[in-house]
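Researcher: Please predict.
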Amino acid sequence: MSDKWESCPKCSSNEVVSRNKLYYFLLWLAIAACMLWVGLLIFWPLFIAAFVPIIISVFSFMKKPVNKCRNCNHKWQP
């Protein structure tokens, strides 16, 4: 959760998840790692394509944090 907690503006639910820059960085890095392993073991073009998520993970630090409601899936910036 973020430092400044807030409920969902759409449905007023308390089931709110905050996703920050580190979350998106680790997500893209995990996708790249999976592609690298599959590329090494099974399908070699995935090994080459894995560098795209690595580059995206570096740029994910420019993304603003996002809050998401678990009940209605509404997304907003805190």
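Model: The helical segments are 21-41, 44-49, 51-59.
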